[in-house]
Write a structure and sequence with these properties.
Lipocalin; 9% helix; 2 helices; mainly beta
Length: 281
């Protein structure tokens, strides 16, 4: 992990040094075109962002609509479409301060089949966030945000399956802060800290046997291990006239964009990556 982090920093500063000369590049590093992800800024009217993980369109200067590609791809893998949409409004914006609110919806299903028995899990996520961006000077900006994600789901077991069938509920609260330092009109250095201060207990309500719905059950599963999960991620955004690359490698847990969830760091050996390729026009 330390080698990956060192490589990312070295490459970023090399490319940053090469971009210090005057350039016609636009992208994120002007007053008109700014960082969008994890900030309060929105796409301008009729502008489009096509990325590896996210697609966005500016309806008006203060409102953009987006969809994440990963849920759609996972929906194809599990043979069940996973539609998702996010509305983001920059409801207040001056030269130095911008405030935004966003609301998203995501649903999908995962089916597990063992012999003649099957279990299908349907999930529904509703992330809502508030973000403030402050432009300290022409080179440095800070972005602070919070997100609440409500997760509900239904579990359906086929006749004969012994799994619990019913509904599940869990809520997640997370905060983040990002410092953005524009090294040039082409390169910006970012330093992001993410933190989950609270996760509700996972509650399952339903029947123990789908053949006998009179046998009711309510379980509360402890998921407090996710409380106080965090990630510290230094990175860079490289922006040319149309193409953009976001690259970062940090330490901690993995925050999954699109699902607004967090994966324990032990799954990825506490390597927290940040990567995206996109174009804007």
């Amino acid at each position: 992990m330390h080698r990956l982090l060192l490589v990312a920093i070295v490459v970023g500063f090399i490319l940053g040094g090469s971009g210090l000369a005057p350039s016609s590049a636009r992208a994120y590093h002007t007053y008109e075109d700014r960082l969008l992800d994890s900030t309060a800024n929105s796409l301008q009217r009729r502008r489009v962002r096509l990325g590896l993980f996210k697609l966005s369109y500016g309806i008006i200067d203060q409102l953009q609509i987006s969809t994440y590609t990963m849920p759609w791809l996972l929906g194809l893998i599990f043979e069940d479409v996973a539609p998702n949409i996010e509305f983001k409004s920059t409801f207040y914006q001056r030269k130095r301060l911008a405030l935004s609110a966003s609301l998203g919806f995501l649903s999908g299903a995962i089916e597990q089949v063992e012999g003649v028995e099957s279990t299908k899990i349907r999930y529904f996520l509703t992330p809502a966030s508030l973000v403030a961006s402050v432009r300290i000077n022409s080179d440095v900006s800070t972005h602070i945000g919070g997100m609440f994600t409500g997760v509900t789901g239904d579990v359906d077991a086929s006749p004969g399956a012994s799994d619990i069938a019913g509904s599940t509920v869990v809520d997640i609260l997370q905060f983040w802060g990002t410092v953005e330092w524009r090294l040039s009109r082409v390169v910006a250095f970012t330093f992001t800290v993410r933190w989950v201060p609270w996760v509700s207990g996972l509650i399952v309500r339903g029947s123990l046997d789908s053949d006998n719905p009179d046998i009711g059950v309510q379980l509360q599963i402890d998921v407090t291990d996710l409380t106080n999960t965090f990630a510290v991620i230094p990175g860079f955004v490289f922006s040319w006239k149309r193409a953009n690359i976001r690259l970062g490698v940090g330490y901690g847990d993995f925050f999954v964009e699109g699902f607004s969830l967090v994966v324990p760091g032990s799954v990825l050996s506490y390597v927290s990556p940040e990567f995206d390729i996109f174009v804007r026009f």
